[in-house]
């Protein structure tokens, strides 16, 4: 079970990286209808749960086969030497190998997305100022955190070996990745304002606004699709409202 859920975490991370790249790959409208969003989420779920199920299921199946000298495949041999895989080859085949492939794909998504933000379609004239360069730098740092680029160091530390203290910094970042993602995404001014409106809203006030022809949802935080479809000059929009 631990093997399955560890893999699922990285498959979901890969799914999130793909979704970020898909959002920023061009300036086309990305807002989808509710049915399309549901379908896309189901496809993501099938991939993110199905991939780990296949890898972990294959490992469990091979591990429960009776040991035979003529077998040429690599069995994981859970629990024979430790409460994990038997040795490095088994860990590479069933754990760090798949994770390494996923992280390599994540790096590719990050590189392409960062390029689009810095010198691609999303780059506008506003990036010339020092303030906007700093904003762009913060966005790239957020991408590093959200896309889990620091997890590459975990695979490298296993492959290279050496003193453990060398990797304490990256291990600490990975351990607090959830907190960092919340700080990068949940602490945005737009998010705080939306949460403040959500928790302090008055049903009677909302009803009065709707009666006067004002929709309460019009005051919500604009989504990525809204910023693209409603503003034809998206390239000149502040980057902090995009990411």
Automatic annotation (TrEMBL):
Main location: membrane
Alphabetical list of CDD domains matching this protein: 7tmB3_Methuselah-like (cd15039)
InterPro entries the record matches: GPCR_2-like_7TM, GPCR_2_secretin-like, GPCR_Mth-like
Source organism (scientific name): Temnothorax longispinosus
Polar residues composition bias: residue spans: 203-236
GO biological process: cell surface receptor signaling pathway
Entry GO CC: membrane
Entry keyword Magnesium: no
All copies of domain G-protein coupled receptors family 2 profile, residue ranges: 1-189
Protein name as catalogued: G-protein coupled receptors family 2 profile 2 domain-containing protein
Pfam families: 7tm_2 (PF00002)
GO molecular function, one term: G protein-coupled receptor activity
Domain of life: Eukaryota
Regions crossing the membrane: 6-24, 44-62, 91-114, 135-153, 165-187
Keyword Transcription: no
PROSITE patterns the UniProt entry points to: G_PROTEIN_RECEP_F2_4 (PS50261)
Subcellular location: Membrane
Annotated keywords: Membrane, Transmembrane, Transmembrane helix
Topological type in the membrane: Multi-pass membrane protein
């Amino acid at each position: 079970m631990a093997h399955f859920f560890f893999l699922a975490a990285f498959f979901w991370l890969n799914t999130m990286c793909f979704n970020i790249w898909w959002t920023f790959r061009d300036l086309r409208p990305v807002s989808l209808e509710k049915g399309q969003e549901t379908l896309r989420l189901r496809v993501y779920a099938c991939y993110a749960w199905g991939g780990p199920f296949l890898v972990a299921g294959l490992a469990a199946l091979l591990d429960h086969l009776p040991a035979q000298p003529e077998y040429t495949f690599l069995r994981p041999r859970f629990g024979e030497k430790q409460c994990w895989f038997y040795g490095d080859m088994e860990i590479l085949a069933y754990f760090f190998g798949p994770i390494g492939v996923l992280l390599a794909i994540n790096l590719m998504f990050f590189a392409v997305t960062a390029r689009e933000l810095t010198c691609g379609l999303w780059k506008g004239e506003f990036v010339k100022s020092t303030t906007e360069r700093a904003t762009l730098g913060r966005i790239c740092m957020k991408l590093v955190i959200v896309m889990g680029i620091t997890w590459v160091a975990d695979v490298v530390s296993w492959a290279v070996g050496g003193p453990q203290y060398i990797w304490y910094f990256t291990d600490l970042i990975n351990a607090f990745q959830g907190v960092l993602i919340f700080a990068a995404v949940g602490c945005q001014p737009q998010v705080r304002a939306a949460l403040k409106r959500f928790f302090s809203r008055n049903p009677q006030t909302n009803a009065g606004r709707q009666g006067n022809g004002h929709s309460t949802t019009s005051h919500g935080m604009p989504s990525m699709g809204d910023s693209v479809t409603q503003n034809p000059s998206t390239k000149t929009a502040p980057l902090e409202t995009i990411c």
